[in-house]
């Protein structure tokens, strides 16, 4: 299980704008390219662990400041789907 968590976290920490847009479409999360770019800049190189509730919550709060609370909530939902 730990290996799968590492793979998912690595993907999130190294995701590109295009990949994020693709996944957003796959999971019915509407994102503009500018929002996707802001999200990528927020996660890139920060070694975020979405399986850690405190770290994920901190990231969602940061995203809420950057892209708005409702969109950050949608992104959190996407993270939760990826964790299953």
TrEMBL record:
Keywords from the UniProt entry: Methyltransferase, Transferase
The protein's name in its UniProt record: DUF2624 domain-containing protein
UniProt GO molecular function: methyltransferase activity
InterPro entries: DUF2624 (IPR020277)
GO biological process, one term: methylation
Lineage: Bacteria, Bacillati, Bacillota, Bacilli, Bacillales
């Amino acid at each position: 299980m730990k290996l799968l968590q590492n793979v998912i976290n690595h993907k999130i920490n190294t995701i590109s704008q295009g990949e994020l847009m693709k996944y957003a479409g796959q999971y019915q999360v509407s994102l503009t390219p500018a929002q996707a770019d802001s999200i990528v800049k927020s996660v890139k190189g920060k070694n975020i662990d979405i399986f850690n509730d405190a770290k994920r919550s901190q990231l969602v709060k940061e995203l809420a400041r950057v892209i708005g609370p409702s969109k950050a909530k949608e992104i959190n939902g996407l993270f939760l789907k990826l964790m299953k």
